[in-house]
Specification:
The chain is mostly helical. Helix content is 73%, strand content 2%. It has 7 helices and 2 strands. The protein has a two-stranded antiparallel sheet. Strand 1 and strand 2 form a beta hairpin. Helix 2 packs antiparallel against helix 3, helix 3 packs across helix 4 and helix 3 packs across helix 6.
């Protein structure tokens, strides 16, 4: 049995959980956008219920009705939006943690099988960076992100990723935040077969 075989169950289930949580997160974000749109519509109804003298009595009465309904719904919609934001935050933390665990499995494999980063095969190149370096340094960032005091190898790697792939890899703009999920997405590890191919390329 190889290290890859020994960790297949954990890795496969982590990827499935990450995919599930990402799907649920998408639904929550859609729900938040819906609630925020409702809140804006209610606010617009309230603010544009003009009681100009040129309007008929029936219009004015209807305007008062809209204003009353908008006021009654506002607090309810605000509470729903707040609850959704809390759920989204919790899901995002969970996804980052699971992605960090997947990086840990890959990094630990290089430590156990090859004795460390230096003697491990490079694996494929991602934007000119060896796969092994991305895995190793991204795992370190995910493990120590709360401290925010990274070694030079970590900051150098993320500067390269930021240059190639944008601000989502900026450790300055995302201080004290894990970038594990962003790294997993970059590597395309949303499918166990792709993850396994990369692990085999690292000699695991």
């Amino acid at each position: 049995m190889t290290y890859l075989d020994d960790t297949e169950y954990a890795s496969r289930n982590l990827i499935e959980l990450i995919t599930h949580e990402e799907r649920e997160l998408g639904l929550l974000k859609d729900g938040l956008r819906t609630e925020e749109a409702k809140l804006r519509a209610n606010r617009w109804d309230f603010e544009t219920s003009d009681l100009n003298d040129d309007f008929s009595d029936a219009y004015v009465q209807a305007a008062f009705g809209r204003m009353a309904r908008a006021h009654q719904e506002a607090e309810k919609l605000k509470a729903q939006a707040t609850a959704l934001k809390v759920s989204i935050g919790a899901r995002q933390i969970a996804v980052q943690a699971m992605c960090g665990a997947l990086l840990q499995i890959a990094k630990q494999g290089m430590s156990i099988v090859h004795g460390g980063l230096g003697s491990a095969p490079s694996g494929r190149s991602v934007s000119g960076i060896a796969l092994k370096d991305i895995v190793w340094q991204a795992r370190n960032q995910a493990l120590h992100y709360e401290e925010g005091n990274f070694r030079r190898a970590v900051t150098d790697l993320f500067k390269q990723l930021e240059k190639s792939h944008g601000n989502e890899f900026s450790l300055t703009l995302h201080a004290n935040q894990s970038r594990a999920k962003q790294t997993i997405t970059l590597l395309g590890w949303n499918d166990y077969a792709l993850f396994r191919n990369d692990m085999m390329s690292l000699g695991l």
